[in-house]
Amino acid sequence: MWRSILCHCLPSQPSPCRLLHGYSATAWRELKPKKINKESPIMQLSSSSLLMNVLYLAGAAASVYLAYNWSRLPVLRRMLFLQFIFILLHTIEELRWPGGFVEMVSDKLHFTLASHQLGDVVLASLILIMFLPPLLLPRLKFLAMVPMVLGVLEFVTHTAAIWMFDRPMPYTPGLVTATLLLMPVGVYSITYAVRQHLLRPVSWLLVPLYMLVSVLVAQMVVVSSSGMDYRQFLNNAKGALLGG
């Protein structure tokens, strides 16, 4: 309708009118602005990375705070901030650069991550569970040891994964930061706590318990969301560990 009115108003311009009349309905629809596909890979990457990006910004802020207050902070508090920064660098090596950790596990254990967004939520939650309590409750020294033991175990598991996942070279995504950053801070902090008698023997037992429960719950959420039975996942992991 509006195309006909435009043509009659412009009798001296026959060419544009003919062009307007010649457009098909399909062609005019194609000229309309297209809606953004929320399921596109770009949108999925943006949404799934949001939480981790917030943590990375928190890590950058922690770096500035630590550099400015290093001499004023107690030793364990320094190490906590340092380990928080290093665990974020560790996730970058595992998931982004060079990345490939999730794919490595999925291929060997026949496990497919249902949602990268859910994976990021669980990972971010696990990091906060490991680091927020010791920072907010500094008197509970055993909480400060949880990220330190985790740092040592990261080195052990990434090294063992070279054989578990039949790597063509002696490297798994995350091994460099686990070896050069997480493990040294973990060993130093644990040694310091032992020498200073900061924890009672019973408190040391709470460290692996707290860490084990946190990791298992996070792991169960991710595995169950994919539709895989958690016992099957453990059997696959056992088979990979034993070379099956």
Salient structural properties:
single chain, 244 residues, mainly alpha, 2 domains, 11 helices, 0% strand, disordered N terminus
Short description:
The chain has about 240 residues and is mainly alpha-helical.
Secondary-structure blueprint of this entry?
Blueprint: H1 2-9, H2 14-22, H3 25-31, H4 41-69, H5 75-95, H6 101-109, H7 116-136, H8 141-164, H9 175-195, H10 201-225, H11 230-241
Helix pairs in contact: 1-2, 4-5, 4-7, 5-7, 5-8, 5-9, 7-8, 7-10, 8-9, 8-10
InterPro entries: HXXEE
Keywords: Membrane, Transmembrane, Transmembrane helix
Transmembrane segments: 50-68, 117-137, 144-165, 171-190, 202-222
Report on this structure.
Keywords: Membrane, Transmembrane, Transmembrane helix. This is HXXEE domain-containing protein. It comes from Brucella pituitosa. InterPro entries: HXXEE. It holds the Pfam family HXXEE. It contains eleven helices and no strands. The chain is mostly helical. It has two domains: 30 residues, no CATH class; 192 residues, no CATH class. It starts with a helix and ends with a helix. The N terminus is likely disordered.
Encode the helix/strand succession as letters.
Answer: HHHHHHHHHHH
Task: Give the number of helices.
Answer: 11
Which oligomeric state applies?
A: single chain
Radius of gyration: 27 Å
Question: How many structurally independent domains?
Answer: 2
Strand content: under 5%
Distance between the termini: 72 Å
Instruction: List unreliable stretches of 5+ residues.
Output: 1-48
Helix content estimate? over 70%
Q: What composes the largest sheet?
A: none
Structural class, by secondary structure, is mainly alpha
Mean pLDDT: 83
Shape: globular
Number of strands: 0
